[in-house]
Each structure stands twice: as structure tokens, then as C-alpha cells.
Model the fold of this input.
Amino acid sequence: MQKIIFMIFLNSVALIFAACTQKAAQPDIQIENVWSRPVKIAEVPSDGNSGSNGVVYMSIANKGRVADRLIAASADVCEATEVHRTIVADNRMSMQKVENGVEIPAGTIVAFEPGGFHIMLLNLRQSLQTGDRFSVELQFEKSGLKKVESTVKLQ
Amino acid sequence: MLITKKQYPGILLLVFAAGFIFMAGCRSPEPFRGTEMPADMPVLDFTLTDQFGEPFMLSEHRGKVSLIFFGYTFCPDVCPTTLATWRRVEEVLGEDAKNVNFIYITVDPQRDTQQKLKNHLSVFSDDFIGLTGSEEALTAVYNEFGIYREVQELADSGAGYLVNHTSRVFGLDRQGKWRLGIDFNAPAEDIAHDVRLLLAGN
Done:
């Protein structure tokens, strides 16, 4: 009897240990407050190049213990997406294309917000109106593909 | 006249009262929340074309306070953020907003057609004025305001090129004199506060 109890005890310890190590080995990405600003486009020429752009903001939390990296994004509402970063310093605004993705360190929240990181939606295929929702796919290095919905808000 | 000990409290009270009245009279006017420009800034003027194809001459709109921002519709972040803030400023000001020119001048005349400006601004407010013009006319305005503007070619981007530019908003008083520099990210309430001070003739 004592032996059986001891075995169950050992088993439980092993299970808890396994659960912990599994958690430790992976990032835990949670994306919240995904939103875009409205954009009005007159008409889309046949080459699809409307020349009007949109934006996606959000907050990406990594509740795991390992860093992850946002490496790409895509959305059906536009021709292409790029991750950009705005830098406002000394009353000057400059924008950079982020080449190697955005690191989401373990235990942090990375904010994509006005005047900072944002997903740029290039050559929108349609107008984005307040209240519209559209899907955005985010590709993470370790967590893989995450699908989110962006809500169009005037704020 | 001899002052007796009994009179001391009364005199003290008088001194305090006089001091209080003096300080109230000398109190400096309410300060601006934006950055105040030196007093010798020039009166600015220019003529460009608005989003409806009509000429716009700033001096014809004197009597109103002007907020002026340099941006471009291709910009997805800072420029629409400023317009969204202005929309809030307009809301906060209510009736007073009628006495304000909200002016958006393009730094990307190549891509910003009148139609683009019209569509872009209409999302935020029908009252906002979008201006463009010839390369020459715009360059003169950039120089007058001391605008930083740099075209940045992006070889491997669908964006083609971006335009880095001055992000601050210029606040002009009713006489067209440049009075304030308003930082990107200034809260709408602070901007509305400063506009009201300018409207009051401060």
C-alpha cells in the first residue's frame, strides 16, 4: 500500500514538473485591443493600387517565459502589409520599416500604438468605415499563425 | 501718531489685505500649455489651393485662430492621429470651433491630389482645410514655417517612398502671428485650452 502511495506521489511530481517545463519552453502570446482608423478611398484602379493606406494597432502580451517575435502580418483588405515604426523626436516624425520583426520579450506587453509600432496596410482594396471589422493574420516565430479581428474606430 | 499695542492686530490685517490685493492685480495671465514662441515672430501668410480646388489665402481668414499641420495622406500613423486629435479639439471647443481654421498642408504633393485630400479629411471633419499647390508655392510655405521635410526612398517596400516631416502643430493667433508650437501627442483638452486663450486675445 505504502509503495502505491509513493508511486502516485512520484507520478504527481513528474506531472507537475512536466507541466512547468512545458510552460517554460514556450511563449504565450495574447493579442488584445486590435483596432484601425477609418480610411475613405474613392475608387480602386484595375491594378489594385489605390495608393491609400491603413493601419492596425494592438497590444501583444507574452505571458510565457520565452521571447517570441512577430515576423509578418497579412490582411485581405489590402495588397500588402508591413511592420513600421514611427519615431517622433525633436518635433520631427520619421517612419522606419521594421526589417527583422518585433521581439515580444517574455512577461511583457508590446504596444502597437500611434507614434510607435504599427502594421501598415498598403494599397487598401476597400474603404474602412467606423464599426467595420476585418481579419488580420499575424505570424509569430514560435507561436505560429494567430488570427485576430480589427475593429475600425475613429479615435 | 503713536501706535498703541492695541492697534497692532488691525494694522497687520491691513498690511495683509493690501498685499493680497496687490498680488491679485499683478497675477500673470493664464499660461499656455503648448510651447510659446518668442514675441517677435512674424505674421505669416501664404496662398495655396484647398481640397475643393479653391484658392486659400491665410490673410483672408484672419480674425480666426489657425492650427496648421504639415502631413500627407499616405502616412498611416502620425498624420491621421493628429487629425483624430483635431476632431476631439473641435468637439471640446463646441461653438468656438467656428472661429478656428484647421489647416492641413501636404508634404507629398506628388501623391496628394485634391481628391485624396478631400477623402482623407472628410473621415475626420468637413470643416478641416486640406491644402496643396505647386512645388514652388509649397516650398515657399515650408521655408516660411521652417519645416523639416525629407523624402525617404524605400527600396524593398510597397510604400515606394515615405516623407519624414515636422510633427508639431503651429498655433497662429487672430492676426496670423505664429504664437504656439503644439507637440504631437498633446491632449485635445490642452489644445482646446490654448485655442480659447488665443481667441480671448491672449
In short: The first helix of chain A runs from residue 2 to 25.
